[in-house]
Amino acid sequence: MPSTPPALHPTVADVTRRIRERSAERRALYESRMADQHRRGVHRGELSCGNLAHGFAACGAEDKNSLKMMNSANLGIISSYNDMLSAHQPLEVFPAAIKEAARAMGSTAQFAGGVPAMCDGVTQGQPGMELSLFSRDVIAMATAVGLSHNMFDAALYLGVCDKIVPGLFIAAARFGHLPAMFVPAGPMESGLPNKEKARIRQLYAEGKASREDLLEAESASYHSPGTCTFYGTANSNQLMMEMMGLHLPGTSFVNPGTELREALTRYAAEQAIRNTEPGGEYRPFYRQIDERAIVNAIVGLLASGGSTNHTLHLVAMAAAAGITIDWDDFTELSAVTPSLMQVYPNGQADINHFQAAGGMSLLFRELINAGLIHSDIPTVFGTDLTAYTQEPFLEDGKLTWREGPTESLDSEVLRGVAKPFAATGGLTVLDGNLGRGVIKVSAVAEAHRVVEAPIQIFEDQNDLKAAFEAGDLDRDVIAVVRFQGPKANGMPELHKLTPYLGVLQDRGFKVALVTDGRMSGASGKVPAAIHISPEALDGGPLARLRDGDIVRLDANAGTLEVKLSAHALAERELRVGDLDHYHVGLGRELFGGFRHLAMRGEEGAGVFGGFEADDLARQESQIHEDDA
């Protein structure tokens, strides 16, 4: 790496500046609150003897003595471990390793709390998927409960998948006076090639493969502990955490159950202790994560062709740290960010192939040298991001970092900025008389990026499946699946529809999906306008559409329009779907309050409101009332 990084790209600098200015008041209030929390202390010294005795009653004598002394660090462990889900099963052994590493440094670690971790792969197309997005906010709240005991000098966040890491991040921001370390588990080893898996899924959708054939293929793909190997939301999470400096360098995609993974977990505990006040290098989350880190996460997401889910999650995550971003920020950055990765669904390789081709160290090197990310941000490693061009290795059993490759070892998977897969990033915003939404185009062929066709409306994804099986969709068609937003039913992913729409496209029809719901982080070759806001239940234009209307989706121009005049569209009655079946069963009735409070997609689709933004609005309202 050059000693002086290249100048920042003008667009990246401009977007960062606008985010900073847009967020100035709420960010100042956020920082003030975090500084105040820090001044109040960590902490154990604030607890009464009775409080403290409860806090370490279950500890061994050595840990009790350390906790009584008040001059050593105590780490709080928050984990999403469960042994049903492959991505989280490896986390079972992490707390013991973290505690042992802490004791070796004269400190302690306690398991502060567990958070739920659901798998969209299990719930895809099922009622449980309607709890998926809201689980992010439940995770944030569960983390807050775990850390509320005020026993900790830093927190280690153990999580991997779709809503888990964003939820942990939101909580880390609200406990921003504590240093934070995110500790991943790593991807499973490669299984059945993605191209073969997709082929068998489509054959099954056409009735040309049996359920036994499908299950065998799926089991050969998802086959062992670790994260799913395609580049969906889970692996996008890991990449973004590293882009923000919240992981150790090169730790995102090391397989579980290896000596290197165990060494990285132990080192994470040691480094977290160094980052505490007792450790001597106080690095709280709120001083580390600012608008520069958020911009880095967006650029990393775009350069890698990452998950559309993060056009929701990153907005909510940034808001938790007092930062306001919107979808236009994604679009502007996408225009100058080249596509550097081709990992399924954007290609046929998996995340292990990316790691072998040069991985995060090469991606960092390319983005830093091109001036596309802020390399000067503080990190949990105690350096700026230039250290993240290094890779971890074990030398005689000791963890060390060495400079990573300077060129890709497989140009079909990972490329440099000079010869990218595409000149722009993989996400763009759609705007028009049907509202605003997003589309992932990194896996959509150029020939399929503009679709104009009659629509067929569905208010349940199972109805689309039935229409496909009846042959009613064997034509040019845009499927509109509405009443799938957060207020309607929790905004489930509709990835179950991908094989059916993919078959229609392969038959030569012009096909697209328009929905106020979500697709998967594995959004693929069929153009899908998603997260349409305002949603149908919130008075959005989707509720005014009728079967046969002509809609034009133009991913190149960034437009989504129904061929009706503004007057004609406004004159139509808003339809209201039958939503009762979405609200009862499998615990969905417990989330009625969440559906009521849910914000729009571009606001993050969460239930917490705007944090400091809400407070500032109330203050301004009070000032106006006082003036009156």
Q: How many angstroms does the end-to-end distance come to?
A: 59 Å
Radius of gyration: 24 Å
Q: Ranges with pLDDT <50 over ≥5 residues?
A: none
Q: Report the principal-axis shape.
A: globular
Classification by helices and strands:
alpha/beta
The number of helical elements comes to: 24
Biggest β-sheet description: 8 strands, mixed
Our estimate of the beta-strand percent is 5-15%
Q: What's the count of strands?
A: 14
**Average predicted local confidence, pLDDT:** 91
Helix content bin? 25-40%
Give a description of the structure.
The protein is α/β, with parallel strands linked by helices and 628 residues long. The chain has 3 domains: 10-189 and 224-403, no CATH class; 427-582, IlvD/EDD C-terminal domain-like (Glucose Oxidase, domain 1), CATH 3.50.30; 588-627, no CATH class. The protein contains 24 helices and 14 strands. It has helices spanning 10-22, 24-40, 49-56, 61-69, 94-104, 120-123, 132-147, 164-174, 194-205, 211-221, 233-243, 259-274, 285-288, 291-304, 310-320, 327-334, 351-357, 359-369, 461-469, 486-489, 498-506, 566-571, 592-597, 612-627; strands at residues 74-79, 108-114, 154-158, 180-183, 390-395, 398-403, 427-432, 435-440, 450-458, 477-481, 511-515, 528-533, 550-554, 559-562. Strand 3, helix 8 and strand 4 form a beta-alpha-beta unit. It catalyses: 6-phospho-D-gluconate = 2-dehydro-3-deoxy-6-phospho-D-gluconate + H2O. Residues 74-385 form the Dihydroxy-acid/6-phosphogluconate dehydratase N-terminal domain. Its cofactor is [4Fe-4S] cluster.
